[in-house]
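Example 9 (inverse folding). The structure is encoded as follows.
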C-alpha cells in the first residue's frame, strides 16, 4: 500500500514540477502557479529583511538569489519525485556488481545521478521496465537543463535592457517636471516627436518581457536612476501633467496618447502577472508646477480622475520598496 502511495505521489509531483517549468519558460504569459507563489513569497521576505527600503544594496542580489533558488526548487522537486517513483519497488535499482537491491539513500543517489544525465554509475535498473523508466528520466533531466539555460540567458539580457532604458531617461531629467522641460523648446513640446515612437516601442517590449519572464520584476536596482519602476512612473506622471495641466495647443495628441497607452499596457502586464489590484491606500501627490510656470508654459486646469492609475503605481512602487518621494525627489509635494 505504501509503495503505491510512493508511486502516485512521485508521478504527481514530477508532473506538477515539469508543467510549472514548461509554463514558466515557454508560455510567455507569466510563471506557473508554483513559480509565482514561490517568487512572490521570497521577494516579500527579502524586502522585509531589508526594511522595505528600495535603496538597500543587498536587494541588488535578490534577483540572483531568487533565480538560483527557483532552479534549486525545481531540481529538488524533480529529484524527490523520481526517488518516490523508484521507491515503488524495493528491487527497482540494484548494485551493478552484486545485483543486490539498493536502500533508500542509494536510490536517492541514483535518482539524482539520472537527472544530472551523468549516467548510471554504481547502480543499475533491475529489469527492462525500470531501464525504460531510467532512460526516460535521464532524457527528462537533459530537457530540464536545456530549459533552464534557455530561460536564464534572455532574462540576463533583459536586465541590462532595463537598466539601460532607465539611465537613458534619467539623462533627460530626474522628475516629471524636468522631463517636460527637457522637451520644451520655448513654444511647444514638438521635440517629443523625435523620441515618442522609440520610447513607445521600448516600453511595450519591457512590458512584454516582464510578462514572459516574471522573475525580471525581482531583479532590483538600488540606485533610483537605474530603477525601471521609478523611471516609468516618472514618464507616466510627465505625460499625465502634459495631458491634464498643459494647454493642448502646445503638444501633439497623436504623439502623446500612443506613448501613454504603451505605459498603460505595461501597467496591465504588471497587474496581470504580479496580481497588483491598484487599491493600495495612499495619499495622492499634487506636484509643484512652479518650474513650468517659470518656463512660460501655458497651464490649464483639466484634471481627470487618475486615482485608480495612481493607486496602481503606488502599489507597483511599494512592491519594490519605493514611494512617490523617489518619483518627485521630495520636491515640495502636497497631498
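The amino acid assigned to each position is listed next.
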Amino acid at each position: 500500500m505504501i509503495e503505491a502511495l510512493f508511486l502516485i505521489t512521485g508521478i504527481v509531483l514530477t508532473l506538477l514540477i515539469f508543467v510549472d517549468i514548461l509554463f514558466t519558460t515557454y508560455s510567455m504569459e507569466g510563471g506557473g502557479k508554483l513559480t509565482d507563489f514561490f517568487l512572490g513569497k521570497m521577494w516579500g521576505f527579502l524586502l522585509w529583511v531589508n526594511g522595505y527600503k528600495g535603496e538597500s544594496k543587498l536587494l541588488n542580489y535578490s534577483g540572483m538569489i531568487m533565480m538560483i533558488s527557483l532552479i534549486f526548487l525545481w531540481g529538488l522537486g524533480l529529484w524527490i519525485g523520481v526517488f518516490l517513483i523508484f521507491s515503488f519497488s524495493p528491487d527497482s535499482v540494484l548494485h551493478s556488481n552484486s545485483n543486490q537491491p539498493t536502500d533508500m539513500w542509494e536510490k536517492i543517489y541514483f535518482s539524482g545521478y539520472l537527472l544530472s544525465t551523468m549516467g548510471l554509475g554504481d547502480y543499475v535498473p533491475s529489469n527492462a521496465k525500470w531501464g525504460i523508466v531510467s532512460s526516460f528520466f535521464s532524457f527528462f533531466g537533459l530537457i530540464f537543463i536545456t530549459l533552464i539555460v534557455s530561460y536564464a540567458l534572455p532574462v540576463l539580457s533583459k536586465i541590462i535592457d532595463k537598466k539601460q532604458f532607465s539611465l537613458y531617461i534619467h539623462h533627460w531629467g530626474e522628475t516629471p517636471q524636468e522631463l517636460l522641460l527637457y522637451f520644451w523648446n520655448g513654444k511647444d513640446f514638438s521635440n517629443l516627436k523625435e523620441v515618442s515612437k522609440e520610447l513607445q516601442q521600448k516600453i511595450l517590449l519591457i512590458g512584454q518581457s516582464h510578462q514572459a519572464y516574471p522573475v525580471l520584476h525581482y531583479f532590483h536596482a538600488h540606485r533610483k536612476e537605474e530603477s525601471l519602476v521609478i523611471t516609468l512612473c516618472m514618464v507616466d506622471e510627465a505625460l499625465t501633467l502634459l495631458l491634464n495641466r498643459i494647454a493642448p495647443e502646445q503638444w501633439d495628441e497623436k504623439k502623446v496618447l500612443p506613448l501613454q497607452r504603451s505605459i498603460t499596457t505595461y501597467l496591465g502586464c504588471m497587474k496581470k502577472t504580479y496580481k497588483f489590484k491598484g487599491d493600495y491606500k495612499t495619499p495622492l501627490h499634487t506636484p509643484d508646477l512652479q518650474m513650468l510656470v517659470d518656463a512660460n508654459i501655458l497651464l490649464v486646469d483639466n484634471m481627470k480622475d487618475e486615482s485608480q492609475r495612481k493607486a496602481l503605481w503606488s502599489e507597483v512602487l511599494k512592491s519594490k520598496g519605493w514611494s512617490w518621494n523617489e518619483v518627485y525627489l521630495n520636491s515640495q509635494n502636497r497631498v
